[in-house]
Amino acid sequence: MLVLAISLVVSGLPQSAPFDRCSAALRADSLSRAAAECFQKAATTPERLRGAAQRLELEQLRHPTSPWIAFYLAEVQALLRAPDTSTYYRFALAKFIARPDAAGEVEARIALGTALLTSGRRDEAWREASAARDAAR
Questions:
Q1: Per-residue pLDDT tens digits of the chain, which is 137 residues long
Q2: Would you tell me the crossing angle of helices 102-118 and 85-98 to the nearest 10 degrees?
Q3: Where are the alpha helices (DSSP H) in the chain?
Q4: How would you label 28-49 residue by residue, b for 16+ Cβ within 10 Å and e otherwise?
Q5: I need a surface site. Which of 8, 34, 132, 134 has the fewest CB within 10 A?
Q6: Distance from C-alpha of 34 to C-alpha of 56, rounded to nearest angstrom
Q7: d(CA 33, CA 49)
Q8: Could you tell me the end-to-end alpha-carbon distance of the chain, in angstroms, rounded to an integer?
Q9: In b/e form, how buried is each residue of 87-115, taking b as 16+ CB within 10 angstroms?
Q10: Whole-model pTM?
Q11: How far is CA 126 from each of CA 71, 109, 133, rounded to the nearest angstrom?
């Protein structure tokens, strides 16, 4: 039932063709960084960025344990200048920690710190920088 609902929603998304190969790559390996990053790379216009965000949200439903899908959704949201980008990065970070994936954790913490710094939350940003350093060890 969920797959049918997702299929119906995906078929109605604008410009789904650029993202079809990305979805196919995730079906082959849902933990692939390159497959998740494919959505961001295929989003060459602001409209396609919005489409990438929609597709990544759907892919999260299909592959809920994939940290890279969550990370690239956060990256796309950052490019769209979403006001809650840090929430997306925190979600990705939690998935990297749960795996565990130290390299992914470090990247997510750095990106989260940048998002926090950009939004004027300097103290939180520095805490993430310190935690990224610790995770890298």
A1: 444 344 434 445 545 778 999 999 999 999 999 999 999 999 988 889 999 999 999 999 999 999 999 999 999 999 999 988 999 999 999 999 999 999 999 999 999 999 999 999 999 999 999 999 999 98
A2: 160
A3: 2-11, 17-28, 33-42, 46-62, 67-79, 85-98, 102-118, 122-136
A4: eebbbbebbbbbbebbeeeebb
A5: 8
A6: 13
A7: 18
A8: 44
A9: ebbbbbbebbbeeebeebbbbbbbbbbbb
A10: 0.85
A11: 20, 10, 11
Residue type, 115: A
With CA atoms as reference, report the closest residue to 22 among 11, 14, 33, 6: 33
